[in-house]
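Pilot study result, target chain (860 residues):
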Amino acid sequence: MASIRSSWERFPQTELTSVASFAAARHTLGKPDRAEALLQTRMLTKGYCPIINTRSAQDPEPTRQSHTDASLLIPPDPGKVLVDYAISTQNIFGLWSGWSEKPIEVSQPAPANVQILSAELIVTDPGAGSLCPASLRFEFSVDWRIRSIAKIELHSRLFAAVTRQTEPPAANDNQGIQYKLGGAITPIAIQFNGDIPTLNGQPVTALNAEGDEEVTPGDAQSSSRRYRVTIPGFELEYASSAHIGLTLQARVVEAIANYRTGAWSPSPKIIYASDPRARPTLVVDLVRLASLPDAAGECHAHLDWAAVPSALGYAIYESTETRLLTSHPGYPQPSPERSLSQRLTTLKQAFNAQPLRRDFTRRNAELVSSNHLDVSLPRGSQDIHLYVILPVMAGGTEGPWPSGADASKALIPYAAPRIAQPAPPTIELQLLQDKAPAAANFRARLRIATRGDAGARPKRIDIHRVRVDDAARQLDSMGPPIASLTASLTTSLPTPTAQWQVDTAGNAQPWISQVIGTDQPEGSWRTVWYRAVAWSEDDAQRGILKSRSLPSPAVSVVIPPATGPDLSPLSQSSAGGDPAWVLINFSSLAPIAPTPLGPHILSIEVRKADGSSLLEQQLPLHQLPSTQPASGSGVWRIAAPASSSGSSSASSTGRYGIILRRASINDALSVNVRITDPLQRIAEQVINIAAGSTTPLPSLSRIDAFSIVGRGHIYSFSTDAPDRDANGGIYRIHVAAVAKADSPFPQLDPKRVPKTATGGIALKSIEQGSLKIEGTNIPDLKKLLGQFTLKKGVFIFEGPLSTVKKQPKTPTLGNESLLLYRQSADRDNNFILLAKAGLSSLLVRITTPDGRSVEQRWKA
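Predicted structure:
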């Protein structure tokens, strides 16, 4: 059953058209049946009772009228129904409106989800091997209120886990359980016969809602029924993984046709089972190793023992493996296949059986007074040496000789270590590159071969690389290896582009026979040197210590840069002196010194507009002069600035200059510069020099004039002209100001300033320095003019642009009438002329090093 609510906008309450009641009906689409009225029938007649149009204060939608159909039956097959609902209204006069219809498709609720409440893998240690039996036990609950359940399908996968937090791999939707890592999927489901669940014919435990008590399946459980399931038969392999994880999901299949299947549990249950094996510790008989051979070829062993009270000293007895086995026939003889521990076990068994004193020889004629002693083993000995320490008491009697089943506990075993040094590997080197039109992709191909039959079997190959020639003379000066390769593990660092193939020989104990691979360091014109060295490995059970072979011969290759030489764009500027001269600057990172493959060649071609040549040169970079040509046109290498130690890096600089001394400033030129590397790859730059000067005119803004009360009159302008050009040429500034005639010096008393015949100020007498003003504190004319001079009534400033000082803020005028300054910091291209008296006109001119100029004028 389903409940369907239909709603519509409530009609307005008007006197003549007010809605008194309404009727509802439904019709199942696709069926020939008549529509069914959703109204109550009258008690005495067969008619229907309309639904009264009422309003409730608790209605959540007071502006809408609604009707609820609480008896819509949804058939289980197909599980959905398409219904057309219709509504008609009746006014207060009993008149009915037409039907308003709306279709709707109603489906049954989805099958309930299975909630997996808990799960665990119960693993058992079999006592031997790494394959452990296990069973899966889990609890789940499922809601029975919607439908009865026919079965619950299970979905489970095993995965190897590095830790107990390892994420499982992506799951699939295939039903079934995996009993082994990588094993087949076995379909499995919990079947329900009514309320009774079974799994593979075995009953499933039904639980109460809390899960702490077993109950009878069915009504004794709540609507959400809980179960416990145990699935045996898992086989977990822990040989290669310390942890094994399992994901578990479930879904229901309804018992009523059409047997709908629910969705898998939305969140799979993930559990982990760690390796349960806890085996007894196997105690191995250990043979002590003596020291490495000294200069005389002897190995030394250090004997120590517990002191015996009242002993005068100690007697040291020694025997060898060969002597002991000779007097005890029937025991296995030492062989390369047997480890030191195995050989020692044999010696202990023989000594326990017959602890013969005659097999031992006393080493010391005089007693050893301390409880330790260093002894030397014979040169080249490969036997196990056995020592017995006996205390000697005050009466000169020795302690008892070891006897009984544990006699071997008195033995102190020592053996001389053996150094396993492989033969030096051979190395072959080849430069590889891809064929055109693909990029060259330069790389080095190495083939390293070992000689396992001429020394110890190599277990590891280290590859060393260096770009410094002197460092390649010895292996230890080449730094750490770029790759350390073993038969079972390949590690390459720090060259992620390297690729190595390791070939091995031998089945039981594989060793490296050869290594083939490519190495692709960053391209450079410097020589790359390679060496290889082979390593054996420790074998503590046989007393073998690993050792490094002698290095292979050093081999070299040049791995050029992937791209051709670089060349910066050409820049032009004035060369200073003659305005017709032009300076061209450029730079390149191409090495100046010749490379192992040859030098880099610089080619310069300069032609006039008529095709005639002004300059043609082709030289290796290292043959270029380091100074500018004194005459004519030419190229040179610009030396770098001297370092703090006073030395110059001119030998490695990549900055170059070309001076072109044109006969006429009106000659237009075409300049072509090329650098060719030893592989004949070319970088080229071209620049065209137009007729006329090469120095661009600086900008000069218009002059802005304003005044500040208490400060004076301000005239500002800006320019991008530098103090000097790239060649040291000086930019100059010329400022000419004309003061208003009535007050050129407002700081002076007008009555004391000499006048002309027309009543104006006698500026000429000021220019000639003949101004004499009595009763003032300004006796010096320079204090009136400051930075400026006075010529024919015009105040003039003339000088290099750098002589205009920077001021952090607007200064205050003192005795001077005019002050020219520039603003500081990032606004030093702004210039200010501060005047006590107003000006009638102002001229500003900026002159370039080659004599050209730009100017601005202002008039009041």
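One observation from the pilot: Helices lie at 321-326, 340-353, 763-767, 781-785. A full batch analysis is planned for the follow-on phase.
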